[in-house]
Design goal:
The chain has 7 helices and 15 strands. The protein is α/β, with parallel strands linked by helices and 257 residues long. It is globular and about 65 Å long.
């Protein structure tokens, strides 16, 4: 397929630095590399090599979800892709899943859930801060070209209750997830997953203690994911100087009836 007006593209230079653009007929990409008119990109296939006004070579691709999340608009810290992948798998999110998440934030996890559950699934995202849900909605519409039909944004404090029933998963990204345990155990299916993403081990310990007291959850796991990239260039084979260390703790458990 060829790029057309309205598509998102990621432009990469020889040093593999990346720049995201939304294509318009009269759009222009201007950097230290020189000028690249959007009209040069429209009609090209993914992976095409183009020249800027200063004869600098750049490649154009469709951005992956990972790349978009790294560069999208935000007002709060996001859940990083390294953690999103674990959350999706450990929460058993799949085609047709019915999911509630809170809070929405800038929409990073929400976009991944929407992609995995497909047209037959649905995700309800709770957040009491409308200004954040507005950013999430813009990010979703920008990456997906429109607001996905399998996403519903709800401006509500989830600690006051969960409206949906028979859920496959409840995923919580706020500081006091134990406050949702009573509601979650009423709306999750038997075997449904409860997941929490929290910044400190003290919060994780409190959550696990409250889950034990609830007496209806099992197979509880606590994870932290560290990402260590490596560089291989000629005879230079070593870890990169920068790595993504601690971002948050993830607590996973399942409901038994």
């Amino acid at each position: 397929m060829c790029f057309k007006e309205g598509d998102l593209v990621i432009i990469k230079d020889k040093k593999e630095r990346s720049f995201i653009q939304k294509l318009t007929v009269n759009g222009r990409f201007q950097t230290h590399l020189g000028l690249l008119n959007h009209s040069q990109v429209i009609g090209q296939k993914e992976g095409a090599v183009l020249l800027t006004s200063t004869e600098q070579e750049v490649c154009v691709f469709s951005p992956t979800l990972n790349e978009f999340i790294q560069k999208m608009g935000r007002k709060t810290a996001i859940i990083h892709p390294k953690d999103i992948g674990i959350i999706i798998l450990w929460s058993d999110i799949k085609q047709g899943s019915l999911v509630v998440e809170a809070g929405t934030g800038s929409g990073a996890l929400l976009m991944a859930i929407s992609r995995f559950i497909g047209d037959q699934g649905h995700v309800y995202s709770y957040d009491s801060r409308p200004e954040l849900q507005e950013i999430a909605a813009k990010n979703l519409a920008k990456f997906c070209k429109q607001m996905p039909a399998n996403v519903t944004l709800k401006q509500k404090d989830i600690t006051t209750g969960i409206d949906e029933k028979n859920l496959d998963a409840v995923i919580l990204d706020f500081s006091q997830p134990w406050e949702v345990i009573p509601a979650a155990k009423e709306v999750l299916k038997s075997g449904g997953r409860l997941t929490a993403y929290i910044p400190t081990i003290i919060q994780a310990e409190r959550l696990v203690r409250e889950l034990d007291l609830a007496g209806c959850f099992m197979d509880t796991e606590i994870l932290e994911v560290l990402l260590r990239p490596w560089q291989i260039k000629g005879y230079s084979v070593r870890p990169l100087h920068r790595m993504i260390g601690h971002t948050g703790f993830m607590v996973f458990t399942k409901l038994r009836k």
